[in-house]
Write a structure and sequence with these properties.
Helix content: over 70%
Largest sheet: none
Structural class: mainly alpha
Strand content: under 5%
Number of helices: 6
Distance between the termini: 15 Å
Shape: elongated
């Protein structure tokens, strides 16, 4: 059980046996790492925006109407863009009760099934996000605030983030299906 303070660094994403999948995984790893670094900066920037807003309103009695939307847009980007990185490390919440009870082969099938179902859900979410982005772009939709930023901005971050997450899960499904028996054995205890 982890409480957020690991003594050792977590292992990186598993490398697929297939050279083509390994190349795609390497490209995704580079993209995910760059996005996670930008997401960390965006999270800090969000904290600065909200701190600025509190200080300005409390000490100078100056209302700010832009900070909520700016911070929400940044948090949307951080959440959706970093999801593929977290998935590549299998860092999403998983229930591990079954993994200790099931034989390794059955557990491997369970993990593949969970990944296929996750991919189906994320692919559907991705498709719907792209339709929302398209509608917001074509119709010129904006928020209802006085700032009125365009809604295509958060929808584009949702769409791109879900596309990366779907691609990451698809690569993991294909890697699990094409894995050799020797490389499939260590994944039996991994989380879903």
């Amino acid at each position: 059980m982890s409480h957020g303070f690991e003594l050792e660094p977590t292992e990186g994403p598993a490398r697929p046996d297939s050279p083509a999948l390994a190349g795609i995984q390497d490209a995704l790893n580079r993209i995910n790492l760059a996005i996670v670094r930008v997401s960390m900066a965006a999270m800090l920037f969000t904290a600065l925006i909200l701190t600025y807003s509190v200080v300005v309103r409390y000490f100078f009695k100056v209302p700010t109407d832009w900070q909520d939307e700016a911070s929400v847009f940044l948090l949307i980007g951080v959440t959706f863009f970093s999801a593929a990185y977290v998935q590549s490390h299998r860092g999403h919440i998983g229930i591990e009760v079954l993994s200790s009870l099931l034989p390794a082969f059955i557990n491997r099938l369970r993990l593949i099934l969970v990944d296929i179902l996750s991919f189906a859900f994320c692919a559907f979410f991705c498709w719907k996000s792209w339709t929302l982005f398209h509608e917001a772009w074509v119709d010129g939709q904006t928020t209802s605030s006085t700032l009125a930023p365009p809604l295509w901005i958060p929808y584009s971050m949702m769409s791109l983030g879900m596309t990366l997450l779907s691609l990451q899960i698809l690569v993991q499904v294909l890697a699990a299906i094409t894995a050799t028996a020797a490389s499939a054995a260590p994944t039996a205890g991994k989380r879903a």
